[in-house]
Every structure is written in C-alpha cells, then in structure tokens.
Specification:
about 280 residues, globular, 2 helices, ten-stranded mixed β-sheet, seven-stranded mixed β-sheet, mainly beta
C-alpha cells in the first residue's frame, strides 16, 4: 500500500517526554532526569524485581484519552551505565478516528554499558478510521540490553466491525557509534483484517518484540523465546536472529488483544530467564 502522508515535523521542539535513568551508589536505579509534558504523565517509580538488583519500574500514562489526528508524539528514554529500568503503561492506548490527518508516535531508547532498558507498553487499540505511524529507535552499547515492543489490536465501539485505515511501523537499531544495524518497516491496511480478506485476517491483533543485545546470551535468548512461543490455534509467534548480530526479533499474531498481551508477556519472561535465570515480577494493571 502507498505510504501515508505524515504530520509536519516540529524542528524547534523537543519530545513531550524525556526520561533518564541512572544507578545510585546503593545499587538501586532511579529517575536521574525527567521532563514530562502533555499528554504524558508518570507515576512514582517502583522496585518490584529482585533480579536484576535495584531494577526500577515506571508506569507511563496518557491524560488525553488516546492518540488523535495530526498529533506528533515523541518520547526519549535513556539508561546510564549499570542501571536497569522497565517502562510500561497502565492500560492500552486508544488511537482515534483521523479523517483529516494521520498521527505519528516516535519512541527513542538509549542504553549505555551494562544497562537494561525495557519499553513494553500495552497494545494500541485502533479505532475505525485511525491512521498511525509508530517509530521505534534503539541505540545500545555492546554490553547493554534493550527490550521493546509495539503492538496493536482493533476495536469498533459502534459494534459494526469497521476497521482502522492504516498502521505503519519502523524499527531502527544502532550501536553506540550510531552505526545502523537493523532497519525494518511494514504497513498494514485495516481492511486486510476484515472477515474473508484472506489468511492474515485470522490474526487481527499483531505486534513486534525486539531484544537489542550483542552479548553471548543471544543464543539462550533465542532458544527461550522459541520454547515460550509455541504456536496454537489462537496465537502464533516466531523468533529469529537479527542481522549484524544485533539481537533477536519476534513477530506475534493473535486472535485478540488479550491473547496478544499474553504472548508479549511470555516473550518478556523468556528473555529475563535467559539473561538472569529468574522471571520478572508481575506488574499490576
């Protein structure tokens, strides 16, 4: 399908949310710097996990009620050396109807030596007529790990089974010198998921999960993911090594948003087991 026209860039404005995490002398990770404006809001940080020690969990909220036409939303998260942070959302984010102009959401993640940075939001809920481009940019040092996902399901609040218009996604992974290691793009028209539109219509909820990791744990990560994502009639997941030994990528297909979320959580738990030998604590939502 033809690429959707994007909203004009804002060359003189920074991201609406910018977060930096660091490791304190006692080993706990904390928010070293924050600038959070509309429509984003953050809660106080939590420390749920025993492994990795001192890891921080932060819930990201939206005070606007979703993503609207013409919006250009940007967020940056960086993890300083040795820190560990998990950023998630309290709930799914609605992407509203966009008759006049599409929306764009860009998330940039950066992790320094020995850092763990996780960005795992709940799936987007694409309403009828929604048009969104989602961009995920990752820059990770050779000794760092970044785990991230982007996913969506569709919903028609009118009960007429109308579909969103378009969802486009781009993923870029670079090393600490800015050298591009991975570039992936895809686009999907909502009517491809309509009943009778073909095999892909079996999977109206879809997502990607990526582990940017260039260390020796790549093989165990891949093995754990493949074991955790065994296909069923209601869910399908596949994991493969990324080019340039940049890590592991996963594509997830599901019957609905609930099964998609379960698959994303299974992938996350599998990676944590491979990296640390322990599953993460469950996050209440």
């Amino acid at each position: 399908m033809a690429a959707t026209a994007l909203p004009d860039a804002r060359p003189n404005e920074g991201p609406q949310a910018a977060l930096r995490f660091a490791r304190a002398p006692d080993g706990r990770s904390y928010i070293a710097r924050q600038r959070v404006g509309y429509p984003f809001h953050i809660t106080r940080p939590f420390h749920f996990d025993e492994v990795p020690a001192g890891a921080l969990t932060l819930y990201l909220q939206s005070v606007s009620g979703g993503i609207y036409q013409g919006e250009d939303l940007r967020m940056t998260c960086s993890a300083a050396a040795g820190s560990a942070a998990h950023v998630t959302t309290q709930a799914a984010t609605i992407v509203h109807r966009m008759p006049a102009a599409p929306a764009r959401q860009t998330v940039a993640l950066e992790a320094a030596d020995g850092a763990l940075l996780e960005y795992l939001p709940d799936p987007l809920i694409m309403f009828p007529g929604a048009r969104l481009t989602s961009v995920l940019e990752i820059e990770a040092s050779a000794d760092a790990t970044v785990i991230a996902s982007e996913s969506f399901a569709h919903h028609d609040p009118g009960g007429e089974d109308r579909r969103f218009e378009s969802f486009e996604a781009a993923l870029r992974i670079s090393d600490e010198r800015g050298r591009l290691l991975v570039l992936e793009r895809y686009a999907l028209a909502g009517d491809r998921l309509a009943e009778g539109a073909g095999e892909i219509a079996r999977w109206p909820a879809q997502g990607s999960f990526v582990v940017a990791h260039r260390g020796p744990a790549c093989e165990p990560i891949l093995a754990e993911l493949r074991a955790a994502l065994a296909p069923t009639d209601s869910f399908y997941g596949g994991a493969s090594a990324l080019p340039n030994a940049a890590g592991v990528g996963v594509r997830l297909l599901a019957r609905d948003g609930a099964r998609l979320r379960s698959g994303l959580e299974a992938a996350w738990r599998a990676v944590r087991l491979a990296l640390y030998g322990a599953a993460p604590a469950r996050r209440r939502k």
